[in-house]
Hints:
Number of helices: 18
Largest sheet: 6 strands, parallel
Helix content: 40-55%
EC number: 1.1.1.22
Keywords: NAD, Oxidoreductase
CATH class of the largest domain: Alpha Beta
Bound molecules: uridine-5'-diphosphate-glucuronic acid
Family: Belongs to the UDP-glucose/GDP-mannose dehydrogenase family.
Radius of gyration: 24 Å
Number of strands: 14
Protein name: UDP-glucose 6-dehydrogenase
CATH architecture of the largest domain: 3-Layer(aba) Sandwich
Distance between the termini: 58 Å
Structural class: alpha/beta
Strand order of the largest sheet: 3-2-1-4-5-6
Amino acid sequence: xxxxxxxxxxxxxxxxxxxxxxxxxxxxxxxxxxxxxxxxxxxxxxxxxxxxxxxxxxxxxxxxxxxxxxxxxxxxxxxxxxxxxxxxxxxxxxxxxxxxxxxxxxxxxxxxxxxxxxxxxxxxxxxxxxxxxxxxxxxxxxxxxxxxxxxxxxxxxxxxxxxxxxxxxxxxxxxxxxxxxxxxxxxxxxxxxxxxxxxxxxxxxxxxxxxxxxxxxxxxxxxxxxxxxxxxxxxxxxxxxxxxxxxxxxxxxxxxxxxxxxxxxxxxxxxxxxxxxxxxxxxxxxxxxxxxxxxxxxxxxxxxxxxxxxxxxxxxxxxxxxxxxxxxxxxxxxxxxxxxxxxxxxxxxxxxxxxxxxxxxxxxxxxxxxxxxxxxxxxxxxxxxxxxxxxxxxxxxxxxxxxxxxxxxxxxxxxxxxxxxxxxxxxxxxxxxxxx
Length: 436
Ligand code: UGA
């Protein structure tokens, strides 16, 4: 099939590359000329495992093209994905400016009957807005389909190539079938392509992310309670996970969820409630709990040290989770802002997100310094805070750490180490929901 993908962000690029890899002809469109040139040369602007070779081999095979010319891409395609960003407005609602701009461009270049797919995460009702925007500008027939993405950063290629489900929301069964055909090569089970109406598909995306965010905030609340009553959340988690209705996934306590999806989507759903005169009490609490959890390590450290003024604090892990360079809404950045505002200086490291974090924290000037090496980072530190569970942090040389830190103090937001071992090594070691 001939496919155009509007927007070569994280979702658009993975979608375009994987569809090309399955034999489709894909043209990816972006307004950013520099990015398009980079992609044409086979270099990808994001850190995503396994993506670069797929882009390279499909560009070489002429199945994957990159362009800034949207008109030509639209005219030469049967299926057009809208995969542009939907940033949060100041009130938490998703800003649809880019989505609707693309819809207008599609309308102005609609030279035959085509299928338009909303892939970006958009509020319920957006596909209808897209349909209205296009219909106002053209008489050529078209279909608008909601096909939300369920990719995780760090395993996006794998998620695309073996999805646990594909959601297709459409009011036209033939158009829906055509989109289903695009995904069939990737499906182990055909019955995992779920067809539904457009609004339900849009809601499925938000509800899925909100449910996952709820699981995390729930476990963080349980962990905080475990701390107060002397229970061990890791044992509680293991015990809970054997109930098949609960399951073992997404119940790891930590420093709160970050990233470009959960925080934005939970807020957008609350906003949708407010716009429809409905109080999303649970979702509001999910966000509240998360905001507090992001600061938990800093609070605990302050309690331990009395004051953070003049202290040197090391931070391991800046991305919102391992295997990504994404620092959007990352708990580490929130923690570092607070450490500095409390008068501490910070030494930070991350295996891949260092540059992005440096950019985000530039306004803090020399209060934060960045290091490639994790041991260099903790030199002379009064304490170490661990925000991200990168593999290289899992079994460090504790003896060396103790020698180079000013004080052997670790606050671990990801429960990486055995509390007994840390006692043996002589660290003051605090983690989330486990007795010390
Ligand atoms: C998330 C969803 O998992 C994807 O299904 C969805 O497609 C995507 O959002 C999206 O809407 O685009 P992602 O944001 O890449 O994917 O990251 P996750 O792996 O889901 O992690 C989110 C956050 O939750 C991270 O900060 C992570 O540390 C935290 N988390 C996750 C926990 O604190 N505990 C857990 O048990 C699991």
